[in-house]
Amino acid sequence: MRFPPRITRIGAAAAVLSALLVGGTVTATPAAAAVGSICYGALPSQAHNTLDLIAQGGPYPYSQDGTVFQNREGILPSQSSGYYHEYTVITPGSSTRGARRIVTGEENREDYYTADHYASFDLINYSC
């Protein structure tokens, strides 16, 4: 199995540990609570294909792939405009782009998977 040259960020666990070590408080935000985690191996094979295309820089099957993801739902951590980009995960049998996407965060190089067109997201864990 080939893993794309992307890394996940430490995320919420690091924030909790940091706050506890310096005697701070930990508060959960709705966005942080809404983002789950998924093992790379648990992704559908089409998501692996999309991640491979992202690592290669394309070409992508849809003109919308690689465009800025606005995060209008507010589920992903808040970032400046242009931080997130979206890519289609092909859904077999669908005559449209379907609901599955990979959304990348460029600076920290995190990858999120959504199977329900942005209603929920899972941070991809490449180490399991």
Automatic annotation (TrEMBL):
Signal peptide residue numbers: 1-28
Keyword annotations: Hydrolase, Nuclease, Signal
Recorded superkingdom: Bacteria
Pfam families for the chain: Ribonuclease
Listed InterPro entries: N1-like, Ribonuclease/ribotoxin
Molecular-function annotations in GO: hydrolase activity; RNA binding; RNA endonuclease activity
Name of the protein described by the UniProt record: Ribonuclease
Organism of derivation: Streptomyces regalis
Classification lineage: Bacteria, Bacillati, Actinomycetota, Actinomycetes, Kitasatosporales
